[in-house]
Amino acid sequence: MAWLLFALSTGSAGLVLLWALKMRGRLNQIRQKYAPALDIDDYVSKEEAKLFKRKNEADKDLSQALDELHKVQDLCTDAEEKLNDIEEQLALAREDAVLMDYGYYEPNYNFESSGIWEKHLSDVNAQLKAMIQNVQHKADKASLSDECAGYITSVVTFNNSSAKGIRMQKASIKLILRAFNGECDGFIAKVNYKNVQLMMKRVEASYVAICKIGEKANMVTINEIYKELKKTELGYVYEYEEWKQREKEEQARIREQIREEERANKEFEKSKREAEKEVKRNADALEKARSEVEGANEKQKTKLLAQIEELEKRMIEMEEKNRYISQAMLTKTGHVYIISNVGSFGDDMLKIGMTRRLEPMDRVKELGDASVPFPFDVHAMIRTSDAPSLESALHKHFDARRVNLENNRKEFFYVTLDEIQRELDALKDELNIEADIHITMAAEAKQWRMSKARRHHLEQSYEG
What we know:
This protein is of the alpha+beta class. Among the domains are: 116-246, no CATH class; 332-464, no CATH class. The protein contains 13 helices and 7 strands. The strands form 2 sheets. It has a 4-stranded antiparallel beta sheet. The chain has a 3-stranded mixed beta sheet with strand order 1-2-3.
């Protein structure tokens, strides 16, 4: 009540003062009452400031972390690519290791030319590799897949375990395939025209013997389809080797033809030089003879005129020879010859060849030098502007009558002179053969006939 009495005594100013004091008291009470809440607000403000600071730091750390993450992701991508490459290499290595376990090695045939043989052998080897990596459990051959190289005919147990028995049988399949592949590789490496059928039989015998052992020991065997593929591979290798041999023979024929052309060209060039010199000598002699005619007496004039006539005739012959040489050098002009050698080969064998030499008999003499006991007899020497085409046409027509059906370089045929005459008559217009075609039917065979008579005489002398 003291504040009331004070207010009354002091008037309105006192009342205001008293009210202010009262409010301050109440404020103090409120502050005391809500002091914990005010402390929380300060705490919250301080924590908010801390959180804001931490947020800024966290954002900065997050940005750095994201940068590091991107770098790590790039490293992971590179690592994955490298890992994929390594896994591919490991897959190939594992495949090679599996194939080697079964005794299979990728063959290398040193193909000289890409073609049918390379494709066929590549397909066969791809099938063999695919079959090797597949093992089946089949007791019924009729239902057996063609995708396995070996199979289990009947599952056996080992230590009362079927799983162990199957593992043992798979190891046995690997063993018999190693043996079969090894033997087949040996057969393939040795195959040639003399033993191809024998090598086929050996593949079959090897298959039967190895399968018998596998079935008897561990109830496993080799797929018959795999065996047939190995025989196919052997056949392709044989055919490829034969093809290579034919290619070599064809190359040898081409080289021989080139050498013959070179010899002919050298002969042409030499003859042309000699002909040019001869023409010059004749021209000089002719000019000299003509200049001497005017001052000569009758006797000398007659002699000089005869000389001039002879020189003019020789000049015409030399001009004709020069034209022939020039034509032969620029075209395929040459001679196709039909020759025989009764003493060496009998009556029913003829050689059909071609030469572009100026002296075709030089070629015939070469053929009869040392390789045969008697010289050849010439039945026809046909000069034509395209000798290679005529020779090729005759060879093609009588191809089935060749003595040597494997080597076309050997130009001997089982054919008669009448048959050749008929074919030449048919080809004359077709190939525009200008010269008359005349075949000498009889073979002189002088040395053979004289040798035969002398031998008969010696035999009679010995008997006497």
